[in-house]
Specification:
Number of strands: 7
Shape: flat
Number of helices: 2
Number of domains: 1
Largest sheet: 3 strands, antiparallel
Strand content: 25-35%
Distance between the termini: 11 Å
Strand order of the largest sheet: 5-6-7
Order of helices and strands: EEEEHEEEH
Helix content: 10-25%
Radius of gyration: 17 Å
Structural class: alpha+beta
Amino acid sequence: MNLSQNDLMIVQSPLVGFTGDTQNPEGVVSLPVTIEEEPCQVTIFVSFFVIKMPPTYNVILDHPFQAALKALVSIPYLNMKFLTSRGMGVAKGEALPVTFTSGKSYLANIQTMIGQVIQKLRNALLGMFSLSG
């Protein structure tokens, strides 16, 4: 995408993380996001906070994103339905094979599964949002 520091809008308030830690964003950039493929696809502009930190999460798409798409998310079916000018679009996820180790606790197995999901999302989004500068 070859965005530079000049493409960012300055933000003065810090963001609070999941663990209560705070980060000062470098800024905010508004980017077009296209969901799915023709004929049932939709493109909307989404504002992203840019933060310098290790890439545990590259992008978190939350309720404002879903509201802008008028989306319905089904976690059990790993899909998201949304309205387009040509009908209903569906973005489908992919179930990841997870091996539960009998010697591990339930929590450790769940943490492994979450780690695998985060890694898959991270890999999928790496090519979409690369900032330079």
